[in-house]
Design brief:
single chain, 291 residues, alpha+beta, Muramoyl-pentapeptide Carboxypeptidase, domain 2
Length: 291
Amino acid sequence: MSSQSDSEPGPAEGGAGPGRDETVEPGTFFLMPRTEPLDPRDPLDPSEVEAQITAVAALNEPLRRGLYRFAVSQPDAVSRDQAAQELGISRELAAFHLDKLVDIGLLDVEFRRLTGRQGPGAGRPAKLYRPSGRQVELSFPNRRYDLAAHLLAKALEPNGDGAAGGIDEAARQFGEELGRRARKHLGRRPGADRLLTQVATLLEGYGFEPARSDGEVILRNCPFGTVAAAHPEVVCGMNLAVLEGVISGLRTQAIEARLAPGPGRCCVVVAASEDGTGRSRARWPRSRLGG
């Protein structure tokens, strides 16, 4: 039997969150407490292992897992009403599970008015949910591939001793192979929209959490997040090379990959090509390559 704190809300409950009499200033932004990603150079903290197990266990609940997947698939923060409609459940039940995901650090919360209206009569700000960026990863026995990646990336930095150009070429070849496989399912002359959909489907399987937004494919997650934070020149350049390879393998000039770094997401976006060449116009400044 579930404990009272994890039981689903009754008819009068709306889950955790501000009460009806709570005053929230317009535009106020809240970040709920969560565990930051581990530095790959640090030893594992036993308490963090317990927190990871708790997070994984929480996603065993099908509705909660579905709500999390919905949140990470959207380009913007989602409301309780949007989440409830997507899963076909009540607003109260959606609120309960969304707030549970906040409690364990998988979602963050912000409050803002969706109508854009201000002043008296504008209504209360809506409670919105977005992915926190927290990394959940368990391995028994323990594996530290992130540490190996960190050390390898260090060697590939401009002042390192590694062969810097090789990683981009390997990444591009990997992307080309992915693109060639996907091209077989696209017909003779696919348009940009269909190509972008195929790219999003392809990258979803590799942990990038793609989402369509304003005619672009943005990548809500970098699978190499902790390494990318410490070595952006290496990892962002590698990600760009992978996407350039995918587009090359698709044999198209209708779409392009370009660098567009932003908070909480991968540094590369894919969009319809503006000049028809399909070639990236912006590259990561990498002094080791002489560019």
